[in-house]
Every structure is written in structure tokens, then in C-alpha cells.
Amino acid sequence: MSEFGDFEFERKFLVGDMPAVAASDPSPALIAQAYLFASDGYAVRVRLQGPAPARLDVSTAELVGALGGEAIGTMTAKGPAAGGTRYEAERDLDPLVAGQIVARAEHVVLKVRSSVWLGEDGWVIDRFLGGNAPLVLAEVERDSPVVDLVIPSFCTTEVSEDDRFRNEHLAFHPFSGWAGDYRNELELLGPTFVDTLGCNHFDGT
Fold first, then answer.
1. Residue 83: left (phi > 0), alpha (psi -120 to 50), or beta?
2. Residue 53 per-residue DSSP state
3. Residue 16 placed within a domain
4. Is 2 a domain residue?
5. Under a CB-based contact definition with an 8 Å cutoff, are residues 101 and 144 in contact?
6. Residue 31 belongs to what domain range?
7. In a domain, 1, yes or no
8. pTM for this predicted structure
9. pLDDT digits (tens, 9 = 90+) for 37-92
């Protein structure tokens, strides 16, 4: 835990296509997370995470079962985000209990996470499954505010402050239902990047 306690500092970006660098992670993880409550930026989440199985085109219950004894369970309470900062208190949960909750939950997000190191920062690249496919998001997290960031070229636009791309929103409103409208919006308005967190540096420019 950082000196800031139960707070996370991250920035999130939309990715057009799965970047080649994601393949450098030899052991991507499958994440199944159920949202038991989500309102006005507050959320309670139960997560089960373990090695991604070879087959992903199966039901949520089958995916959860495939994680087996290597899975890690957590329960997290989240507060509203502001300026790339969000309250997040995470505690360990018995993976068997976490799996049973996720398997029975109505609002679940499934994704395969690849972790890569780019420059001075560790990034995660999430490829969403089910109703949120083909969404791909990239996140960078630090122990303090994410300032003066080098943004990789595969990042299309920043969505750190767009609540539609928060997992709790995706659990209740899957991306497939509004992807077309969002693409039209992005084409009309163009990409944007948060400019209140130091200087943005774009990789390759």
C-alpha cells in the first residue's frame, strides 16, 4: 500500500486494436468481477482472478470454474473518481466464496489482462469478453498521481474521466450496446487527453 493508503492513481485509455506488445506477457490473467452495487461513482465489487484458460468462448460459470485453485479473490469498495484519483479499499476474499458470488451475480465483467512494462511505467491492457467485446482499454497506475505521462502510440483517446468506461458502468451497460454511438462521437469530436496532470508526452513524437 502506498503512503496515500486506500487510494488509487490511474489513467485509462481506449485502444483501437490489441497492441502487439501485449503478447510479451507470457501469462495473461482472466478477471471475472461482479458488481453488487454501483451508484453515483460508488461501487462494491467482488473479483476472481487467475491464469487465463485456453478457451474463452464459454459461459461465465465455466470460465470461473476453469480458474481453479490458482485463483485469487478480493472484495473492493470504491468511491467516485476525481483528477485520476479514486478511493479504493480492497481486501482478500476466499476464492471459493468469490467464485460462487461471481457465478451467481447478474452484473459481471469478464476480461483478459496482459501486463507490460513500457518505459518507466507498468501498464495493463484489458481485452473485454462477452457483451463488452471488442473493447480494449489500457491503464497505467502509480503510487501517486500519474503526471507527466508518456502515452503509448496504441492509445486512441483518454477515457480516465469518462464514466462510461468504468467497469461498474460496463457491467450494467455493456459496450456492445453503445459502441456505434461512441465511435460516431469520437469521429466527430476527435481524441482528447487530460491536460491537468503535468505534461503529456506521446511516444514516438
1. left
2. P
3. yes
4. no
5. no
6. 7-202
7. no
8. 0.92
9. 999 989 999 999 999 988 888 888 888 888 767 899 999 999 988 877 899 999 99
